Amino acid sequence: MHAPHELDLTISDVAHGGIFVARHEGRVIFVSDAIPGETVRARVSDDSKSSFWRAETVEVLDASPERQAHVWAAADVSVAPALRPGGAEFGHIKLAHQRDLKTKVLRDSLARFAKIDSDVRVKGVGGQTDGTRWRTRVSLHVDDAGRIGPFAARSHRIIEVNDLPLATAAVERAADKLYGDNADRIDLIQAADGHVRVLNRTLDERGQPVERQASKREVLTERVGEREFRVDADGFWQVHHDAATTLDGAVRRALAGVDVDPNAWHLDLYGGVGLFAATIAELGGTRVTSVESNARATEHAGENLSEWIGARAETARVDRYTRSLLSGASERERARLRDGVVVIDPPRAGAGKNVVSDLATLAPRAIVYVACDPVALARDLGTFAERGYELANIQAFDLFPHSHHLETVALLQQA
Ligand SMILES: C[S@@+](CC[C@H](N)C(=O)[O-])C[C@H]1O[C@@H](n2cnc3c(N)ncnc32)[C@H](O)[C@@H]1O
After folding, report:
1. Residue 89 lies in a domain
2. 140 CB less than 6 Å from ligand 1?
3. So where does S-adenosyl-L-methionine get bound (predicted)?
């Protein structure tokens, strides 16, 4: 059966991924740009699956009191769906209610995938703001015609826009002056010194940026309180200007009741340039190893941690590293690992069953899981629970206002 072009739908719920749930003749429809409680007219954009369809709101018939004019006029529901830029899927919802919806997605994920009943709430960071002007890092795409802009929501079509309200003012100003010669993508990065770097990137056939020549690399200095971190301009650093400080503080709070033993061996897995290894070291755990697959980031982690004689940075895939500890660590090292704490901050897909299971076998005193995806977190917490690690405390932060993303910091300890 083919879907009718447009449907009038009542929105019943929010789903993971910045979309909303409606039902039509028994079928689930995932609808963009809506709010639970609303009735909207939506254009079906994908009816290829029998189990669910996708649709995009084209008109709000009965608006939620939580609706506001979109913070990015270009992404407003009055614009044709194909022409709306992506990245601000919650921008039409009042900020406090965005956080209520993110809280619901997180709690639902914990209940569904980890059987955890939690009263966690997603909190705003950085004082009272309207949730704009937080992105210190923005990637804009360039097409063959030289057009520059973000991709449209759920597509690779470039949308030229007049403003970037989620970006810092300096990044937005720099974006205004761009021209698209010689690049597939342009990355704009504002470091702690306030200056915006403009990096023209070439993408390979998988859409991944080709590594820049050594002579073209710039190393930036980022700050968390008084501490400085060196990081490549094109390397990983948290995107929200308050994120690194917020997460450092959250890891400290998570570990407040845990003895960070100076004689134990601690791990910072998916460590980047050593942000959380420094947190552990400052808490007294100076024998700490940061593990990261990107060799340049590991080099910087080595420098960033150089004041602690027992700190190391290793270039390795975490799954291989934890497996090598299981097969190669001495009895004495295994005992030190059991007394240690582990921070893990994996990419969106989560750590996965193998890493979780190997970590549980290593049996550290405490594990702090920093997560940017609530479903991946909940799946991994489910596996940890099977292996005897229970959730001891959990915090959640709105580090990505007006998008659907959120960040969670969870402490796990043996039951
Ligand atoms: C979310 S970032 C966290 C970085 C760091 N904790 C921070 O907050 O600055 C995830 C990091 O994991 C690295 N990474 C991705 N997959 C990995 C793997 N399988 N093994 C080791 N590192 C990996 C990425 O290069 C990236 O630096």
Report:
1. no
2. no
3. 238, 270, 292, 345
pLDDT higher than threshold 70 for residue 255 = yes
125 and 145 co-located in one domain: no
Cβ of residue 348 lying under 6 Å from some atom of ligand 1: no
Q: How many Å apart are CA 270 and CA 343, to the nearest integer? A: 9
Distance of alpha carbon 160 from alpha carbon 313, whole angstroms? 42
pLDDT digits 0-9 by tens, 264-310: 999 999 999 999 999 999 999 989 999 999 999 999 999 999 999 99
| CA of residue 318 to ligand 1 center, whole Å | 9
Q: How close is the Cα of 154 to the center of ligand 1, in Å?
A: 25
Q: Is 98 annotated as a binding residue?
A: no
Residue at a domain's end among 164, 198, 213: 213
- Using pLDDT thresholds of 50, 70 and 90, give the confidence band for residue 95: very high
Q: Model ipTM?
A: 0.99
With a 6 Å cutoff on the Cβ, whether 232 touches ligand 1 is: no
Q: Are residues 60 and 147 in the same domain?
A: no
> Which residues form the domain of 278?
100-129+239-414
The verdict on whether residue 292 carries a ligand-binding annotation is: yes
Residue 3 has pLDDT above 60, yes or no: no
Residue whose C-alpha is closest to residue 123's, from 341, 397, 332: 397
Q: Does 358 carry a binding-site annotation?
A: no
End-to-end alpha carbon distance in the chain: 51
**Cβ(354) – ligand 1 distance below 6 Å:** no
Q: Which residues contact 343 (CB under 8 A, 6 or more apart)?
A: 251, 267, 268, 269, 276, 277, 279, 280, 367, 368, 370
Helix axes 95-114, 374-386, angle to 10 degrees: 30
Judge whether 220 counts as a catalytic residue. Answer: no
Q: Which of 199, 372, 399, 406 is catalytic?
A: 372
Domain count, the chain: 3
Do 284 and 150 fall within a single domain? no
Task: Give domain status of residue 46, yes or no.
Answer: yes
Query: Is 265 in the same domain as 370?
Result: yes
Q: Is the CB of 347 under 6 A from ligand 1?
A: yes
Atom of ligand 1 nearest to the CA of 273: 9
The answer to whether position 92 is within a domain reads no
Ligand 1 atom at minimal distance to the Cα of residue 372: 1
